[in-house]
Amino acid sequence: xxxxELLLTRQSSPQLVAPAPDxxxxxxxxxxxxxxxxxxxxxxxHFTIVAGNGLQKLSDIFVSAFKSKGVEQAKLDKAAKMPxxxxxxxxxxxxxxxxxxxxxxxxxxxxxxxxxAMQMAAFALGYGAIWRTGELAYNTEVKxxxxxxxxxxxxxxxxxxxxxxxxxKKPSKNYTRLVSYL
Length: 182
Known about the structure:
five-stranded antiparallel beta sheet; single chain; NADH Oxidase; alpha+beta
């Protein structure tokens, strides 16, 4: 698969099973994240790898965060299962630096580019991936449990594994109504 075919055919894989990317593939995926546009060379991101026993730890963090909000049992049960939707998760968070030429927004976008690049790398390596956020990406208790400063953000949970089934290729979206010329 060449790079254009990759860009035009990539799609999210919501149902992921083992095997997860091995250490060599994970190294490649993380290196892809490191190649994204980074104004000022600030590297304003951090990767937290969640696998094995870490999936249960993340599950406990999610449940605790919702319990403190007093949510109903059904939501707690769903939160407990979330990390087990894939055998490996990369939590991508920001590490914002004060910089006169690189505003916070650019640094957040750069961290988001990491998630995208890593998802594309996983797809190129034959793995499935899906980029998720949801309210637990914006939860202060989750951030604290993952040692993410209150001033930083979780830009995504990148779930990685082997697609549980083959999905039909999604049709390409038409871009013409989204383009204007000056």
